[in-house]
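fold-stage: in
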Amino acid sequence: MSKVPTITLNNGVEMPQLGFGVWQVPDDEATAAVTTALEAGYRSIDTAAIYENETGTGKALAASGIARDELFVTTKLWNSASETWTRESVLREFDASLGRLGLDYVDLYLIHWPRAMRDDYLTIFRTFVEIAESGRAKAIGVSNFQPAQLERVIAETSVVPAVNQVELHPNFAQAELRAFHARHGIVTEAWSPLGQGRGLLEDPTLARVAAKHGRSAAQVVLRWHIQLGNVVIPKSVTPSRIRENADVFGFELDADDLAAIAGLDNGTRLGPDPAEFDFS
């Protein structure tokens, strides 16, 4: 695997542009999957409390022999409706995630969803600021936030989230949100970057671009993300695909390729709409 480029976050922390996601990976499979990813050269691992695989992820990190400062570990607070979110409850959940991961700190801590209708994300983010100031999270950010919520966080805390992790793939390219991020110094991180295996990778346009470069459609899509400047976290439990997804730095898409892929943006969202999504 070629050396993964990094992106400098707005607080100076360096984040690998390619990482390994473990969404929907059972805890008893996470150790093997993360171990394979680390052996393939990934150094950024993205998990979350709700994934229920922080323990398995942490076991792989501990057994890897890789120095902690060479790893970039992200986890997320599941800000469910079953909790009244206060400073104390956020700190409790953060400590629980650290305990499951077996770490003294994480590199990035995210609010998983805005749940704007419950209006508690400011309390949560203010506590995140405290966690960052203590050094137990090297950077803090959000996931699935829209511009109105980002503007409010910035205005009321005077802290710009380092990252906003959002659904993003060629069928849902989020150009306006990416432009907002760029104006405010927020890094765009893509979840479901390959379209969740729901037909995107069979698109004939991607097939043509892939054939032109002697690559797979998945590699073309990941390369598209890299060239847009996104951070991207593909997920797989198949060792060959984990390795294939890491091999995206030995070719470059040209202007014609990028224009063709841009034409696939049809506004198709695969996950929940953040403006409406609430959960228990």
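fold-stage: in (second)
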Amino acid sequence: MARRRLRSSTVVLGGMGVLAATITSCGSDPDRRCVDPVTREKLPSYECEESGSGSGSSGAGTVRGVYYYGGRVNDGKVEDGSFDKKAVDSGGFGCSGSGGG
């Protein structure tokens, strides 16, 4: 009688899980939240989106908030992140930073 070997399939499935985690974390952007730059209060996302892109807009394209990357929200205010996307480490396992410019 031949014995069944399950170890090789377990290793393959485990390896596939690690590979999937690496691929999904590599190149992913950090969390982005719309916040008031002065008070650091979390705002609705539409407060960070311009409604008018023309150079001659009369205030219609004005935004109140800016994007804050990473960190967390505590009592309605953001902390432990940055307004600079590049300052927040979003690289996953095995990822290398890209130097572009």
